[in-house]
Amino acid sequence: MPDLSALAWVLLAVTAATIGISKTAIPGTNTVAVAVFAAVLPARQSTGTILLLLILADVFAMISYRRHANWKALLGLAPAVVVGLLLGFGFLAFADDTWVRRVIGVLLLIVIAVTLLRRRMGRQIAEGGTHRVAAAVYGTLGGFTTMVANAAGPVMSMYFLASRFPVKEFLGTIAWFFAIVNVAKLPFSIGLGLITVPGLLLDLVLAPAVIAGALFGRWIADRINQKLFEQLVIVLTIVGAVYLLVA
User: What compartments host this protein (predicted)?
Assistant: First the structure.
């Protein structure tokens, strides 16, 4: 078990709860968890440790919204996501961590700007060529960012937000997306030595906080309105992008 201070344990427990909330209510809050885990634990260990907690939260999200996923959207993203994962895996072997995070932060800000502009002009991601291009761009970027920094939440939130999904369809689709992607990342993470015994023990201690956060998030999702939900997603995405730029 990692030797941590009492304050560090409190921070990890609180942020573990936010992981659960992010999966069942407000996507984007897990960016805060990524920041805290990276600050408290060694960077490589934090990546593997938080991945397992994300998978646990994914299970609760899938159970909660199993009937609401848009499988057509998910299948359309699949090829690009696989490409992004492979690019991210290769990139991790060579790129400087700080440089990678800042590049991702810039890309996220561009994604936010484009998405907001499209919404302001009254244009949605629609059927046909525009949809295929958007799925290729967002899917590749999502696969890449989740592999290198566990930071695809903001990217995919912008994609599904631009698709104008209702709250539960949004949450169900993004839940299944990350459940599949996070499990697919496990072999890569093990191969890179990111999954460790101390990390597994830490996950066992923090698992109840993730579960509590997921249940609380499910309660929130039944009461949040569409406009507030979309505003929170946008704000948290901007926060995530800024964090990646300055971290």
Answer: Cell membrane
